[in-house]
């Protein structure tokens, strides 16, 4: 007999909210994490992207909120504006039947406006660490009644760029505040850092929902000056409704958008230097399917939940294996099928070889010819009139 959310003794308002959202059965990470978090334990939870991590921590923690209290009782930290807003939206949808609210706190926007909104007495605050610490240091926000804190995308929030503000926020909490860390990738180094902030934590390493569909990881070799044209041809060939293309440099994002639009491929850009309003607009158009291609830096690699992204393209190699996993995780969410392509120059192949070894992901080389995506050997066998590619077939597999 399969598990349902009623098995977790969730409050009636939460169960009603889940029914309205048409969320019926827990995913593997939710099955493992919800009972543990409900017990009050500190926890480190690793689960692949798109497996329902947000509900895995929100449901048990929201279930423990005091509906009579007007104080902040739950803090959630996240690395990007987009992820903060997304988590806040989910929390609000779950709280709607309880007459409680969540408030987003992010950098780069007017502090006075955020302070004004805090006067509405939210029960949940979702924040980027830097802005939250700023408000705590200026005594504009109190956290003495916080029952639990969640560090989402923990591998990112515990790296050099975010570690200090995260530590400073945690120091201001009560000793018995529950601490929960979630990520798609959680190395022993991350667990060691998190352990200094959360004693006696349980470790959960959950699997993705299994339905036999899976994600195919492939790569195409291209001359550096022809990569944009290779991308254009690939997007035309796969012809899916939603594709995300990851680029390392901001100026490259705008160049690619310009070239694709010239060839009548509607797309939008997303990077840290675009305004908050423009970023929100690009995501909205992409979610609604009004544009089919989103060109972005790693600002969209973590936690951004866009339904039915069918294809991810690494136009530039990810910075490391974990980043490759996070980028690729924008597709194949909740066990659905997905396509992941890397467009690499010949001299970048060693990077894919390293990622394959570190992640255990098999990457197969493909070529585009005559409107088809083929293995190099298939093209040879068919004796196609086009010239034989100078590179040899490579297939990276980790046994």
TrEMBL record:
Taxon lineage: Bacteria, Bacillati, Bacillota, Bacilli, Bacillales
Chain ranges for the short sequence motif Q motif as given in the UniProt record: 3-31
Region entry Disordered, spans: 374-399
Domain DEAD-box RNA helicase Q: 3-31
Molecular-function GO term, any one: helicase activity
InterPro entries reported for this sequence: DEAD/DEAH_box_helicase_dom (IPR011545), DEAD/DEAH_RhlB (IPR044742), DEAD_box_RNA_helicases (IPR050547), Helicase_ATP-bd (IPR014001), Helicase_C-like (IPR001650), P-loop_NTPase (IPR027417), RNA-helicase_DEAD-box_CS (IPR000629), RNA_helicase_DEAD_Q_motif (IPR014014)
Family from the record: Belongs to the DEAD box helicase family.
Protein name per UniProt: DEAD/DEAH box helicase
UniProt biased composition (Basic residues): 388-399
Sections of the chain in a coiled coil: none
Residue span, Helicase ATP-binding domain: 34-204
Keyword annotations of the record: ATP-binding, Helicase, Hydrolase, Nucleotide-binding
SMART domains: DEXDc (SM00487), HELICc (SM00490)
Domain Helicase C-terminal: 230-375
């Amino acid at each position: 007999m399969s598990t349902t959310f009623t098995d977790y003794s969730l409050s009636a308002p939460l169960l009603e909210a889940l029914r309205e959202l048409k969320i019926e059965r827990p995913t593997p990470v939710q099955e493992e994490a919800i009972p543990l978090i409900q017990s009050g334990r500190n926890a480190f939870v690793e689960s692949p992207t798109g497996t329902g991590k947000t509900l895995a921590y929100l449901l048990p923690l929201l279930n423990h909120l005091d509906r009579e209290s007007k104080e902040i009782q739950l803090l959630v930290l996240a690395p990007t504006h987009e992820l903060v807003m997304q988590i806040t939206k989910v929390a609000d949808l779950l709280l709607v039947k309880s007459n409680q609210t969540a408030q987003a706190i992010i950098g780069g926007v007017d502090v006075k406006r955020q302070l004004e909104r805090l006067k509405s007495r939210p029960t949940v605050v979702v924040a980027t660490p830097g802005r939250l610490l700023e408000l705590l240091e200026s005594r504009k926000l109190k956290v003495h009644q916080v029952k639990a804190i969640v560090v989402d995308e923990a591998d990112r929030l515990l790296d050099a760029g975010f570690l200090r503000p995260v530590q400073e926020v945690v120091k201001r909490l009560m000793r018995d505040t529950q601490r929960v860390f979630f990520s798609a990738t959680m190395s022993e180094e991350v667990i060691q850092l998190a352990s200094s902030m959360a004693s006696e934590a349980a470790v959960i390493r959950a699997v993705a929902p299994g339905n036999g569909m899976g994600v195919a990881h492939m790569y195409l070799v291209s001359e550096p000056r022809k990569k944009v044209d290779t991308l254009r041809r690939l997007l035309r060939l796969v012809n899916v409704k939603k594709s995300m293309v990851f680029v390392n440099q901001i100026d490259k994002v705008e160049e690619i958008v310009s070239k694709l639009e010239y060839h009548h491929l509607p797309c939008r850009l997303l990077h840290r230097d675009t305004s908050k309003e423009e970023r929100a607009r690009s995501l909205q158009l992409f979610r609604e399917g009004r544009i089919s291609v989103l060109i972005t830096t790693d600002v969209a690699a973590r936690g951004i939940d866009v339904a039915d992204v069918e294809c991810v393209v690494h136009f530039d190699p990810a910075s490391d294996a974990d980043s490759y996993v996070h980028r690729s995780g924008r597709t194949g969410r909740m066990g659905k099928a997905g396509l992941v392509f890397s467009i690499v120059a010949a001299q970048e192949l060693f990077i894919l070889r390293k990622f394959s070894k570190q992640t255990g992901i098999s990457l197969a080389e493909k070529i585009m010819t005559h409107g088809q995506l083929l293995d190099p050997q298939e093209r040879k066998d068919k004796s196609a009139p086009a010239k034989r590619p100078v590179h040899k077939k490579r297939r990276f597999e980790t046994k």
